[in-house]
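User: What would this chain look like folded?
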Amino acid sequence: DLFINPRWYGYSILTYEEDRFRDIDRRDTIGAGLGHQLIETERTHLSLEGGLNYVRTDFLEAENERYPAARWAVKYDQRLFGTDIEVFHNHELLSDLTDSERTFIRTQTGLRLPLIGRLMATAQLNLDYDNKPAPDKAKSDRVYLFSLGYHW
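Assistant: Here's the prediction, encoded as structure tokens.
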């Protein structure tokens, strides 16, 4: 991110994923756009992003795809009741500019709990939705994560 002023910023993004259960050998996205921090307080953060991406998906069996896409994202986190307990939700939507039915969404929603010092526990649901998945593959994919981490 590169801030233009205290609330507006430009961003660039590069992602990579593999998922043999969804027939994805490799999916890369690269893009850039603008972001706006709607809320930036000690307890609450909310930002919106929008831009253009290029999506390349190499499938294991289905026909490969390459297309320009519009990107929209939301990043939100909130500390609860004056504590360090935090809820968060991030999502990203990519929609093909040449075929509006080809859209996929990635979300991460969860709860972070402080344990001891800077050690944190996280319970999280990641939900991916692909409106046009590979043939015979489900449109949605859920992952439940429980993790321990160190907050820098």
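The chain has no helices and nine strands. If you want, I can go into more detail on any region.
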